[in-house]
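Record format v2
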Amino acid sequence: MTHLPLARLLSLATRQLLRDARAGELRVLFFALLVAVAASTAIGYFSARLNDGMLMRATEFLGADLLLSGSTPAAPEQVSQGKQLGLEHSQVVEFSSVIASDAGIQLASVKAADSAYPLRGQLKSAAEPYAAEQTGPGPQPGEAWAEARLFAALELSVGDTIEVGSKPLTLRRVLTYEPDRAGDFYSLTPRVLMHLDDLAATGVVQPGSRVRYRELWRGTPQALGAYRQVIGTKLAANQRLEDARDGNRQIGSALGRAERYLNLASLAAVLLAGVAVALSAARFAARRFDTSALLRCLGLSRNQALGLFGLQLALLGLGTSLIGALLGWLAQHGLFYLLQGLLPAQIPAGGLWPALAGIATGLVALAGFALPPLAALGRVPPLRVLRRDLLPVPASSWLVYGAALFALGLIMWRLSLDLQLTFVLLGGGLITALLLGGLLLLGLQSLRRLLARSSLHWRLGLGQLLRHPLAAAGQALAFGLILLAMALIALLRGELLDTWQDQLPEQAPNHFALNVLPADKDAFAARLAELSPHPAPLYPVVPGRLTLINGEPVRQIVSKESQGERAIRRDLSLTWAADLPEGNQLLAGDWWSASSDDLPGVSVESELAESLQLKLGDRLRFNVGGLDRDARVSNLREVDWNSFQPNFYMIFEPGTLQDLPVTYLTSFYLPPQQERRLVELSRAFPAVTLLQVEALLAQLRSILAQVTLAIEFVLLFVLAAGLAVLFAGLQATLDERIRQGALLRALGAERKLLVQARRAEFALLGAISGLLAAIGCELISFLLYRYAFDLAWHAHPWLLLLPAIGALLVGGAGVLGTRRALNVSPLTVLREG
Amino acid sequence: MSSSILTARNLSKVVASAEGELTILHDLSLALNRGDSLAIVGSSGSGKSTLLGLLAGLDLPSNGTVALAGHDLAALDEDQRARIRAEHVGFVFQSFQLLDSLNALENVMLPLELEGHADARQRAHALLERVGLGQRLTHYPRQLSGGEQQRVAIARAFVAEPDVLFADEPTGNLDSHTGERISDLLFELNRERGATLVLVTHDERLAHRCQRLIRLEGGHLVDHVEP
């Protein structure tokens, strides 16, 4: 054996592998790896595609995938660059204009859009006010559509002519829904939609007039990403880039959490994969100690023996991973097929990445977890052929396992694109495993003393665990990790669904009422109380603009592109309140304590305060209807923007703004079937602007329903994978049990005794694993809630059921899975000597 | 001693134990020529297997030297010793050491496959026919009796035509009748192929079929019988 070229080693490895496979030697490792790769591929595909699908829905809120907006027109090259990248483009210009008719004038918010608008979602309109909605393309040149309230305010009917600037337009339809209007609750004025081609003829848009230019883009994620890169750094001071996530807080936070959940589920699958592969790879190696010793006797060098086993493992890993990825891909197709009625018709295919990630997961898990046992194979002394008690010198496995963990972390990170989540999960898992493993060893050792007095089947069953406490601790940890992953995914599912339920209760306000005049306030409130069970209070609103902070012009302080910049660009809705509004939380300062000087107090929303770099005690100047008002920041408030309640950036101390012209604002719930009563309300209070947000709510609900569905299915996936891995793990511990079973049978033990012993052993193992899982789950969920999901953590008493669940699951699966050990012939022991 | 295939000079083996150092083999020398057969006998713990392990290069002595086919084993590293084993040595073990996942034919083919012989299958097949297992080629070890397993092991040991065959209690796991037939086979093949045989056994009858016999007690050579 002077020379063993790679080709020969490869062909030897292949032949050995095929022979091993035929002899049933590889079943456990193959199965574990298959499950692991299939599960992570399927979950990878499922979450990637679903995520894309959900994002697609969410893009409706922008009317596009990506939006470039600014107060000046986009530079020609900004548009041409997008078109060069193959993106679809649409242009929209928004401005305010007075609309005149024979009955009077009304300030309207006009949107001039080209024929491509909208790129995502659809326009809806009706032939008459409050008639049935239809979807279809927008107005043609020469036409205009308007909201029903403009028809009411100006006593218009379809077919009448209105003038926008100096351009007369024929009112063709009643505008009922613009996809990108939904997020914009506080538009006070009714909408008029016209064709962009007519814009120049209106003469309204002049240099210096307040206009919003919006460039809408649609395309593949790659092209959009490329466009972002090209123009992202070269935006003008007044320009912003937005995608679905930036566009809407509710959608953004729901999507963000869902994404994290799906990521977490795929991480759990990877973790399960790791456990499965670790268990079976160790068995794979142990069963090859003799082979390795014999091959060395036959003249193979250590490196050649290692190479042979390594190649076998690599071939096995590659082949199995490919099959697993294919299975995973098929599984998710089946799933989408089952769900086709509930999901958007077109879901992106998901590409190759989830399959590659699945394969990489399998290979890295195999390499990471099989390497230490494999390295041990190289150290099997050839003398083992004479003395079977010779085992390989124990390795300094720390380094190798460290490398395995690192590799696992790398996969998790790549899969989740979330370093924090990966750290929390991996670090939490590791610390938990080490701590609990140590405790477990101590516990097992103290069990020894109890054992002496118990009955035979307990002694036999527990003896099995206690004889090798380190191995038993390893098994309990492995099963514990499986239970933990399953429990964690189940736990978070419930938590997320509850959070969303809270966020969108059945009767979330679906209408806003603006511009309620002080004279109408009481009458309106009384009328509202008849219509709606729990209307929000009527909040006074005074439009005002923030001009100075501590004497400095605000524009010099605020960075471009920040939330603060957006807030000061327009009038803020200022209000006053004696009590902290519901859903607001005081973060710093006091709610109206006597201030040190004569300046009134103002309460500032905390994110805006951060963006404007405001501190308690800062002096602010607002311009309200041409008058300056000074106030001092007396507290900072956190606002729940997810609630459909009126929310305010600035709340003044009572008695500060009362002398200014004020209107009132509220929100309320009206059942969809009572929509007609809205018309009555609007007739009774013609000055009041009523905004319907039902469409937004419906859209949000449908997205959340989709996410919920996805989460349920992912949970099922993880549970199924967990059970499969549990079985694989039990199979991996079979050898020792077969030997013990045969020996006991040979010594005359009855089958019943063996069953009882087995039951005792696995039930105890399961209970311990369940306990570990419960502790670990609480620990990790605490970290996750706090650092990844931004949820309030509380204890989960049902986790205390986990030891019982573990005992049942592991006990049942253990007895089932090791049936062979009970039926084995005692001759086996005599043969093996 | 120019024709010696295996020479041991002043071999000692010392191991560490709880009571301090323990010498399990004391200052032992021997030389074997091609075609010789040597039996090493002694009670359990007398150092037989230790000596076999040293002679075969599976382990290294604390003192002394072993030369196998002209190579000083102590001067070689483990991989180089592995090469010597591949070229010159065959083994038969008490516990057979067949690979469970390979059938009889594949077990015998293994040494030839490791060397890359194209005719591995034919040669293994022929040798299995020779040891009387022509009908059991595709049987797995667990489907074979102890005697049959040992025949497979013997075929495997001879298939690569080694210069020296080491046999460690080759009949130890077999009944006396089967053991008899296995030892017949072993000596027949040894004669046919002209290999040197080193046999560890506590079966005196088997030992006396060898040309030479050494007896160990507590690691000391107490008897050396030459024909």
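The longest strand of chain A covers residues 88-101.
Chain A has three domains: 28-56+255-502+701-832, 63-252, 536-668.
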